[in-house]
Amino acid sequence: MELVKYICPDSPYVWNKNGVSECFDNLVLGFGANLATAVMVAGLGIFNKQHKDRRRIHLSARILVYILAAFGACVTTFDMAVLVKTSTQSTPYHEWLFRCSRFSVWVIILLVSRCGSWLDVLSNGMLCFWWIAKLALLIPQLQIVLSSPGVLKWTMEICGALIDIFFGILINIIRVRAANYESSLIMEPLLPYQMEIEEDNFRDMGIICKVWHFMTFKLVDPVMQHGANKQLEFEDLLKLPVDMDPSFCHNMILKFWEGQRTNNFNHPSLFKTICLAYGWPYFCIGLVKVLNDCIGFAGPLLLNKLIRFLQQGSKHVDGYVLAISLGFVSVLKSFLDTQYTFHLSQLRLKLRSSIMTLIYRKCLCVSLAERSKFSEGEIQTFMSVDADRIVNLCNSVHDMWSLPLQIGIALYLLYKQVNFAFVSGLAITILLIPVNKWIANLIANATKNMMEQKDERIRKTAELLSYIRTIKMCGWELLFAGWLTKTRSSEVQYLSTRKYLDACCVFFWATTPTLFSLSTFGLYTLMGHKLDAATVFTCLALFNNLISPLNSFPWVINGLIDAAISTRRLSRYLSCYESDARLGISTTFDCDKHFNGKEAAVAANDASCTWSSNKEMEFDLVLEHVNLFVPKGSMVAVIGEVGSGKSSLLNMILGEARLVNGSIHLSGTKAYVPQIPWIMSGTIRENILLGKDYNGKRYSEILRACSLDLDVSLMLGGDIACVGEKGVNLSGGQKARLAFARALYHEPDIYLLDDVLSAVDVHVACSILQNAILSHLMNQKTRILCTHNIQAIHLADVIVVMEKGHVKCVGNSADSYVASYVSLISLNDSNTFPEVDNKGKKTSSLIEYIENTQEVECANTSIEVQDVIEVETRKEGRVELKVYQNYAAFSGWFITIITCLSAILMQVSRNGNDLWLSYWVDTTGSNQREYSTTFYLVILSIFCLFNSSLTLVRAFSFAFGGLRAAIRVHDQLLHKLVDAPISFFDQNPSGRILNRLSSDLYTIDDSLPFILNILLANFVALLGIAIVLSFVQVMFLLLLLPFWFVYRKLQFYYRSTSRELRRLDSVSRSPIYTSFSETLDGSSTIRALKSVDFFLFKFLQHVQLYQRTSYTEIVASLWLSLRLQLLAAIIVSFVAVMAIIGTHGYLPVNFGTPGLVGLALSYASPIVSLLGSFLTSFTETEKEMVSIERVLQYMDVPQEELSGRGHSLDPTWPSQGKIEFQNVTLRYMPSLPPALSDVSFTISGGTSVGIVGRTGAGKSSILNVLFRLNRICGGRILLDSIDIVGIPVRDLRSKLAIVPQSSFLFEGSLRANLDLFQTSSNEKIWETLEKCCLKDEIEAAGGLDIQVKESGTTFSVGQQQLLCLARSLLKPSKVLCLDECTANVDTQTASKLQKAIASECKSKTIVTIAHRISTVMTMDQILVFDQGLLVEQGNPQVLLLDESSKFSSFARASAM
Q1: What backbone phi and psi angles, to 5 degrees, belong to 1278?
Q2: Which of 366, 463, 489, 1425 could cross-link 1253 (Cys pair, CB 3.0–4.6 Å)?
Q3: In a 3-state reduction of DSSP, which class is residue 23?
Q4: How far is the C-alpha of 112 from the C-alpha of 127, rounded, in Å?
Q5: What is the pLDDT of residues 827-850, one digit of tens each?
């Protein structure tokens, strides 16, 4: 006891009236804890002395350990020096024991950190746990110190406590990092350096330089310098850290998602997957946020002490310590804030790439049947919108606990200032909670409905862009644009509901601080308390701290709601069933099964399939009870009428259709060529190789076998020539041959070919049949060919006859039933061409024909438009003022002025409110009772009322203006796009255009108004603060000019880079959507060729470029944010020091009353956060304005010449249908050879004309110029003796009817598809369907009201063409153009159609482009084209008799 009395002479041993005694705290909680820590660290160091840890850890971790230990030692050394200087005989021994023990702890840690075993020591679990537990002992210590009057003492204690907290967090992170080093899947590095070094190299790295480099984001300096001097390119961007690489992120998220699917197959949770993948680093970031939020309240506390110091009039040095501490806290918060934002942004980028790659992989791995429950627009929305909303979850989840924490701390500190008077303000806040909950529910419903309409709009937009050529030729642009506008109106209706509800949230939460201050100060004075400057301005500073969390809360709720909806939507998609077959794994079967002594390649046993997904219990079977056995190495021809199930059979074998019962077995690899060839953007070579290694010899051989060698040789650039999206710059035949060449190059065991010969002319079909399908390249392979080609059917080893979803019979041409069916197919050719009975004779004559026509082929390859795809352009320099003016014009100038004026007046009322409070405090403090308390409260209430009213006006005017702009932008952009010429769509992939109408438009709808609102509020707040500070403290004007100069320089230096980065970001985003859209179309081909990994790799490369752009953007913005916040910290320190100097009377300038000084200090404190917020909102606004800039680019595209030249057309025009081409020349590009060269011919009214020629000879170009899709270079075209150039283009197209080469059916009812303008009766439609051989199928399917699925997938390709023909026959037109309309139907159906067309169109002019010679044999006239020249014309029967004619050679080839 004597020892205790000696150590604690004047202090209770344990408790005093305020809690723990100072002696007990220093001796037990301080000295005892430090002693235990020192012993533990030293013991661990000695025990591990001989052990050198060979594990590698990030350099940054050891740097921080060393720096924190050194800083702790410095602080404790300074603390001991102060104690020595101020010590007297009465200084208790427990003070010395505590200070010395704390110093010894940091010295021991410094020594240990220099040893090779430092990682073992500091990552020890017991030490890490003890250090975190020890932090709890700081609470009584801080309570005692902060209640003492010594400013310097409690400043040192706070610094020591902060170091302890940082060190405890750091060693726990190092422990987890070291434990998970080998897997390295969860924890991310604390610092951005990804190099891992051996510990021996540590001393050579320049610790201070590295830390400074990291903390100030100097790694982006080279990019900033490039951006200030020149236009940035992708090569200038920062490299991605290893753990931010998209492949790394994809593998990690996929691992946890597959684990979720394994554990909870029916309902896997995407949210849980995200938590498992990124939960721990997210938690660590949250710890930094806790510290950052708590330090944010140090400012108001220091402000309170500083104002009280000024009120006392003391000249002690404590005033300067307080003033400098205020600036130091601002600096510390700046660093913490930017580091938190940096690490959170890194995590956001990781999550974004994870989600995007997960969606893309699902698209690659899910069958067409399983995907059928989602529309293409909905799936594209997953990538463009839902992914971003889920990423925003990173901010919202932390804000969800952080904002209440900040509000709670602020309320507690308010209680310490004004006792229970703050309850009145709290009551207002609590009353608003149910209101906001109700609003949040309404917003959730509106968002859900808006997303559904957005999905539908994007689907319709994609449909419009994909089939724009057909839509323009039919003159339906305005109709489809009207439908799209109607869907957009529904979307805007829900968007407006959401925006106005958001405005209500903004009003409630923005006026809350003002109402809070009015009610709090009012109740405080009414309770009999006297207001003083320290109380009022500390409360005002706390109110300012409340503004951000209170205003942000509704947005956080909205963000969580949006993320929850998107997570559920995306989980449903990602949960779709996947099978091994769809991942490219073939299933082998029992090898005992043989067919005529041959092993089977494909076996179907009682197989039935549907196009419904696995979870749909009700479905319609497309194939029933299929039994099929295909021997290895055989050639199988699948034949049947249109809609009989030929394509469905191939899809069932591929695994794309859902197998309901039975089994399908495959032996070996496979390749698939669909009926509509799938061509991706890229070069010819890339389309053929599709990721496989280049073999020059085989590649050249395959080009020759597919008759592509000469086409390729005449293209600009050869096989490196660019192919546009969906092969827009290739003819139909070239696309078919390119897709076939791809399958051939991959050397599969099984070829699944869906009608590949129908799109090419007879010469090319014969060549492909002989040089490819029957050659050594394929004759040992299994070939399953759906076809109507007579030669291929006769040459097949096995013929499969399909009828209404059943296999009717299987055999060969020698079998009686099969032979009878084949003879029906050949019947139409029998009268025209000599029959060949023997397969051997047919083969030999075919070989002879090929040899004789090889030279003809050499001369017959024409050049279509090549390399027309433009690289996406981007603006240079800053976003022009014109862009902002355009947005203001979209919003409406009146509403723009109202919004700005209301924002300014709102800030004026707020500043007036604070100045009135300052005046009230001064009059009360000087005992000048000129007015009663009620008077002051009434004036304060008036200011509050004005502020609330103007806030309401600003919120709703912004919502109204943003909605108005969104509506106008969409409508004008859509109008400009539908009026653009077809060449614009050929040169710009639909994904690029869709990016404007989805992602950019979403920015204009939602993000841009939001960030503009914040920018305006921050600007007027800063302006108000600058004016008030200049008025209150004249010395601030001395700082204002240099500060503004530095600020402008920094901002200019940054903005040059920021704009370029945003543009690069937009450009790098387009390939992602283009690639995704292409993959959606060609996923079945990709799966069949086992190219899933290749396409995933390509997509990862696109995402990586996008990630690099975003990463550089983030680091650059934080670079500027830190520097501006440091400038703001200088302002805070300057104002505080000037206030101290002014009260000491060292300057001649009078700084006014204590109330005004307090107001200046309370206004200087939030400059840090306001400047950072203003910077962020300003740069984000400029970045978001790039969306307006990009949209304006497409509002300035060339437009079609819609108006004519004054012709007053007769409503019955054209009455005859006479077509005259007079010396017509067409070039698709000035640098290319002519597609049509000096073509002249006349088609008499009411006659039928067939146009034939090799693939690419210029046949389709005739229709292009007739419909004025492309402008002719010379000559003219007359229709009923009127030059079509003088006729309004839509009037012209409405008078012509066409059945396009690529059939087009849109999602909707069948009746709407057939009769778009609702001008035909049901009887007329049924009559036309009957003539097109479709009546029975339509009646069986449910009649005219059945819903056609997206892209017409409800029907087979042949049925789609027949429906397009029926639609054209319903159109009252004197001219009917048929572009390969019977290419995908069997010959029997084609014959019926020819008779129907002949009977229905007796008085019409019919222009037919065909590869099937039998189609044009009954025509009145034949036009033969070659290389854009009209080389032959005349009656087909006459030309047929002339053996030297080109038409005769076509006919002979067709007969073989």
Answers
A1: -110, 140
A2: 1425
A3: helix
A4: 13
A5: 544 444 444 344 444 444 444 444
